Amino acid sequence: MSYIPDPNAQSGGNGLGTQVSRAAADLPQSTAGTLFTISGGRVWVRLLLGEVTTVIGVTSNVTKITLDREIVGSPVDLTNVLDIRLDVVGTYYTLDNSFTALRQASGYFYPNVVSTAKGWILGQGDIQLDCAASNTGQIKWDIWYHPLDAGATIVAA
Predict the structure, then answer these.
(1) Residue ranges per structural domain of the chain
(2) Rounded to an integer, what distance in angstroms lies between the CA atom of residue 126 and that of residue 86?
(3) pLDDT along the chain (157 residues), means of 10
(4) Residue 48 and residue 113 in contact, taking contact as beta carbons nearer than 8 Å
């Protein structure tokens, strides 16, 4: 049985669901690196948020978020590409209201940037950060989700 949870009934009342954090880590080098793994069924991702903790290097680095599904096939692009070179500590990455564009801002986001986003319904697989170049820098990631199937979870990679 699957269901759409009441976002206002979650712990803490923030409506975003369960939070999973991934410690700051080096950027993947000219490849995709797994941020989070979805297992046990479908989930409703409400918010994905990255924060630069070590300055990103000077090399042009077009980056996107992908889902490497458990089923056979190529990873699916979840966002457009964004050049993250030279982004400074405190730069945030999140998704626009359509959940298709990766956005960046330094220091903070106004509440309306993500407040109307509906999110993604995702099946089992790996949520990845796909970097086109080798570059220095570190990003910390957080994700908030609701399980749609009993036993569905997201864990940090």
Answers:
(1) 30-156
(2) 27
(3) 46 76 96 95 91 95 90 82 93 78 62 51 92 95 94 96
(4) no
